[in-house]
Amino acid sequence: MGQMIIHIDFNSEEAIYVQLRNQIIIGIATSDLKEGDTLPSVRQLADNIGINMHTVNKAYSVLRKEGLVKLDRRKGAIVSIDIDRMQAINEMTGMLRIVLAKAICKDITEDEVHDIISGIYREFIMCECKKEKGKDT
């Protein structure tokens, strides 16, 4: 798994498999992980992080269901971004609906939400651009 470093917060209320899944998704978004990259085996990643193999397996299974990873018996988990665009939009809309409802409960304005989303989006795009420039040199 290239240069990507996984950080697990064992004190977090968020499940470990969710933390692992989220970090792999961020790795794909920032181009630390690319289409066709092979992820470490379940056993290898579990040993490296110090977690149960079933936890890694669950994270990989969720990523497979989300269309971001394919599981191959010989090669293991491989980054495979084959998710349909409309499906991705529908999933994102569902997740954002809850996040935005919470924002409204906390009196976060629409402009603040737009600024936050734009900032995060630019952050991911900038990571990708920096990596692309590094290839040219």
What secondary-structure arrangement, pairings included, does this model have?
Blueprint: H1 16-29, H2 42-49, H3 53-65, E1 69-72, E2 76-79, H4 85-105, H5 110-136
Antiparallel strand pairs: 1-2
Helix pairs in contact: 1-3, 2-3
Please characterize this protein's 3D structure.
The protein is mainly α and 137 residues long. The chain is built from 5 helices and 2 strands. The protein has helices at 16-29, 42-49, 53-65, 85-105, 110-136; strands spanning 69-72, 76-79.
Name the features:
Arc Repressor Mutant, subunit A; 2 domains; two-stranded antiparallel sheet; 2 strands; 61% helix
CATH topology of the largest domain: Arc Repressor Mutant, subunit A
Query: Whole-Å distance between the termini?
Result: 23 Å
Shape: globular
| Largest sheet entry | 2 strands, antiparallel
CATH class of the largest domain: Mainly Alpha
Instruction: Evaluate the radius of gyration.
Output: 17 Å
Structural class category: mainly alpha
Strand percentage lies at 5-15%
Count structural domains: 2
The CATH architecture of the largest domain comes to Orthogonal Bundle
Low-confidence stretches: none
Query: Order of helices and strands, N to C?
Result: HHHEEHH
Helix content: 55-70%
> Got a strand count?
2
**How many DSSP helices?**
5
Task: Let me know the average pLDDT.
Answer: 89
Name the CATH superfamily assignment of the largest domain.
Answer: Winged helix-like DNA-binding domain superfamily/Winged helix DNA-binding domain
| Arrangement of strands in the largest sheet | 1-2
Organism: Parasporobacterium paucivorans DSM 15970
Pfam families: GntR (PF00392)
Domain HTH gntR-type: 14-82
InterPro entries: Tscrpt_reg_HTH_GntR (IPR000524), WH-like_DNA-bd_sf (IPR036388), WH_DNA-bd_sf (IPR036390)
